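Hello Y.,

Per our agreement to keep a running log of every chain we model this quarter, I'm adding this entry. I've kept the format consistent with earlier entries: sequence first, then predicted structure.
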Amino acid sequence: MTPAEEPTGPKSLLAQRFRGFLPVVLDLESGGFNARTDALLEVSAVILDMDEDGRLFPVETHSFHLEPFEGANVEQSALDFIGIDLESPDRDAWPEEIALPELFRKIRSAIKKHSCTRAVMVAHNAHFDLGFINAAVERCGIKRNPFHPFSCFDTATLAGLAYGQTVLARACQVAGIAFDNSSAHSAEYDAEKTAELFCGIVNKWREMGGWPLPAVEESPADSDE
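Predicted structure for the entry above:
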């Protein structure tokens, strides 16, 4: 933990809810499935907050189009699937080494606001997104990655438990969240829908009496950092 990430005040309700972690919802679009070789093309993160009654909700979205890194593989089938035209003059793409630190700065600001220790990624099939972010962090030599390196919240798993659906569009439908398939496969749209889904599941669990729970004393062996 760097000094900037150390809690600076009493824990917020949000920090208490997730053991000092700040859940940040993320989605990305890529030029393939291999985090080491395939381009990262879009990334979007949704910052969450919690009201005084313990209800979680999205507050802001930060999105970037990204230039493929030098030597990156980009599958045409991936571009066709997600509907990205790399040559579009309106794309306004950023280099990874500029966009990711800017995104991380905004996440660290939210971490500090809530007196959390670090962020934990929330994503649909989360280890896919986490793998791409970790690979980009290593590739760019970024020293201050706010995300936990291996822990994450996977909304595919959570939606399977809560709604019996693991596909994002179907889970949203069962949860009563409007989902436009023609807008899907945009990092920003999918991140915002994933945020709605995650907040809905967390809030439903609270309404069912699942939180707050009795305090449990934590020992050093319980740490996963």
